[in-house]
Amino acid sequence: MTDSSRHIACVGGIVHDPDGRLLLVRRANEPGRGLWSVPGGRVEPGEDERAAVVRELAEETGLTVRPGALAGVVVRGPYRIADYRCDLAPGSPARPRAGDDADDARFVDIAGFAALPMVDGLAEILREWAALPRI
User: Fold this and answer.
1) Fewer Cβ atoms within 10 Å of its own Cβ: the N or the C terminal residue of the chain?
2) Model confidence pTM above 0.85
3) Tens digit of pLDDT for each residue in 74-92?
4) 37 in helix, strand or coil?
5) Beta bridge pairs of residue 133
6) CB atoms within 10 A of CB 3
């Protein structure tokens, strides 16, 4: 536990492809099993948040990213989630593939985003952070 032993430290990655579509994963496990979210997960002991974002996105999507600015932090139950804006790294595969805690991974446009069942509050927070799909 972190954050004064009150919350489990987690990270998420907000990634847009060159066309402005947003990377999402469908969660294979609880919390939120079957719902769509940005990819991410727990920060391992001794790992910094940026390294955790790179690792988690590789595990869940097969993509290599470079974390940029912190978009914001949300607290959901016992989890404190720091979401970072990320760019695809040179040489990263162009298409995500689901792995680890995700059973599907894809880039979605705004219409696709609106049609998917999301984890609670995702659309609102991404709108607040100006991080929705751009097309």
Assistant:
1) N
2) yes
3) 998 899 999 999 999 999 9
4) strand
5) none
6) 13
- Tokens representing residue 121 in the block: 């509050």
3 state DSSP class of 42 = strand
Angle at 71 between CA 66 and CA 74, to 5 degrees: 120
Mean pLDDT, the chain, integer: 93
Give the span between the Cα atoms of 66 and 50, in whole angstroms. Answer: 8
What 8-state DSSP symbol labels residue 96? -
Q: How many CA atoms lie within 13 A of 121 on its CB side?
A: 8
Rounded-to-integer distance, Cα 39 and Cα 47, Å: 17
pLDDT of residue 34: 95
| pLDDT digits 0-9 by tens, 21-53 | 999 999 998 888 999 999 999 999 999 999 999
Q: CA-based angle 56:62:64, to the nearest 5?
A: 75
Residue 54: phi and psi, rounded to 5, are -60, -45
Give the pLDDT confidence score for residue 1 in this predicted structure: 39
